[in-house]
Write a structure and sequence with these properties.
alpha/beta; 21% strand; globular; binds zinc ion
């Protein structure tokens, strides 16, 4: 055995609750879990390394199910804006000035942040995602679900009115579809990399291409990762293209896409009846509450979806907006916003938020046979959290385990001590191992400073509401 963690508070998630073991132990052998259970009766003597877990809580690696990590270089670029301005006037001028090297630097920063805060699986969503995985996720040691963006709509649509139907650029779609197909050859049987197809959204892909993508996914037993019902702009496009009364969910249903192989991100434009239909069809949902809260002022329907019996994951989406790639913050945001939205403090309890970020994420991404719980034979994706630091103290075990609410409402992500991905210790006693974090941060800072400077005139010309705030000395 390579590593044993003993005398720890264990949350295994291996049953319908949290699988709490008070004086627990975990044994890691190669990339697998060789022991999960009480310390009593466990013999760690043959382990190369024994970690004293007495001040630690040990849980499955967290799943950040939906991430555009390269945008991390644009952290802080587009907050506090009207939704209509966020993409084109806020973020757009910076994104348009970003070089491929900038995107890599941003992605390294985002993945470093996510791993350091306990995420072991990252649902990356990008154009040319294979290169990003080779350059960033693999060297930094993350498990990744690599989704290639498939989009047939031209980037600049500023000449179109809201009811003008987008024209599809078939060649653009074909190129993206073949890049997605390539991913499956490139990462065939790679234990850490799971490719997925990413038709970006129903209004951005033609039904013809969508059907072919769906067929290819079916043949490969792969999932479709789609932004679903993202709001007004999409709803108008769907009505104009598919006829009065058509909605994203109704069209996905007509096309035969509502099923367990669909990963539906956001979903805030769905009706309660549509959610019932999605849950019945086995569609998994990803809620990104920090992102949708910051950009749209909307709470994703995570609590409702989970309440209907649906499977829900959490995602941090992208940094310019929500501001972070920290699943601990995302759990708290999910819980807090669900409570305030419903006016019900019992909504999204801490145990449920924890399940969303672990086993829920694994199920939605189709990885539940490998990760999301601590069970013998599963992949050794394990996180330990220091329960002795001020933000976690006091943590008591009588008359109940306050570590559960403390992990959701008090932890900030900085309490993470160890992160194992497939048995590799990516974070050891708080120190990131695969790269020098100082170097990753310095490069991101340098590149971002140059990029923001380069884009300054374009950003001012785009004239978002932030320009006035800058002129008034608020930014
Ligand atoms: Zn997204």
């Amino acid at each position: 055995m390579d590593t044993a963690i003993v005398e720890t508070t264990l949350l295994t998630f291996a049953d319908d609750a949290l699988g709490i073991v008070e004086d627990g132990a975990v044994g890691i052998d190669g990339d697998e879990l060789a022991y999960v259970g009480p310390t009593d009766g466990f013999d760690p003597d043959d382990a190369d390394e024994v970690v004293d877990g007495s001040g630690l809580v040990t849980l499955p690696g967290l799943v950040d199910a939906h991430v555009h990590s390269s945008h991390t270089l644009l952290r802080g670029a587009a907050q506090d804006l009207p939704e209509i301005e966020w993409m084109n006037r806020g973020l757009g001028p910076f994104a348009a000035n970003a070089t491929p090297a900038d995107r890599i630097a941003g992605s390294r920063l985002g993945v470093l942040e996510a791993l350091s805060a306990g995420a072991t699986t990252i649902g990356e969503y990008a154009t040319e995602v294979g290169d990003l995985v080779e350059r960033v996720h693999r060297p930094l040691g993350a498990r990744v679900v690599a989704t290639e963006t498939i989009n047939e709509v031209r980037e600049d649509r500023s000449d179109l009115g809201p009811r003008d139907v987008y024209e599809f650029d078939r060649e653009r779609g074909e190129r993206a579809f073949s890049r997605a197909n390539e991913l499956f050859k490139r990462f065939d049987d790679d234990p850490l990399i799971t490719p997925m197809y990413g038709p970006q959204a129903l209004d951005m892909v033609s039904p013809e291409l969508l059907e072919r993508v769906h067929e290819a996914a079916h043949e490969r037993d792969a999932r479709l990762h789609v932004h679903v019902a993202q709001g007004e702009r999409e709803a108008i496009q769907i009505e104009e293209r598919y006829g009065a009364g058509a909605t994203t969910v109704s069209v996905l249903g007509d096309l035969g896409l509502l099923g367990p192989d669909l990963v539906a991100v956001h979903c805030h434009g769905t009706t309660p009846d549509e959610r019932t239909r999605m849950v019945e069809a086995g569609v998994g949902m990803v809620g990104c509450p920090s992102s949708i809260g910051a950009i749209d002022g909307i709470v994703p329907p995570m609590a409702h979806y989970a309440g209907l019996g649906g499977t829900v994951a959490l995602g941090t989406d992208q940094a310019p907006g929500p501001g972070h790639h920290d699943v601990f913050r995302e759990m708290r945001t999910a819980a807090l916003l669900s409570k305030t939205r419903s006016g019900d403090p019992t909504a999204m309890p801490s145990w449920e938020a924890l399940r969303l970020a672990t086993v829920g994420g694994a199920r939605v991404l189709g990885l539940a046979d490998r990760v999301g719980t601590l069970e013998v034979g599963k992949q050794a994706d394990v996180v330990t959290v220091d329960r002795t630091v001020p933000s976690m103290v006091p943590t008591v075990d009588r008359p109940f385990h306050t570590v559960v609410p403390n992990l959701v409402h008090s932890a900030t992500g900085r309490e993470v001590r160890d992160v194992f991905v497939a048995g590799e210790r990516v974070v050891e006693d708080g120190e990131f191992q695969p790269a020098d974090p100082g170097e990753v941060v310095a490069e991101a800072q340098e590149r971002a400073t140059a990029l923001f400077d380069r884009a300054a005139d374009d950003w001012r010309a785009a004239g978002s509401a932030l320009v006035d705030h800058v002129d008034a000395g608020r930014l």
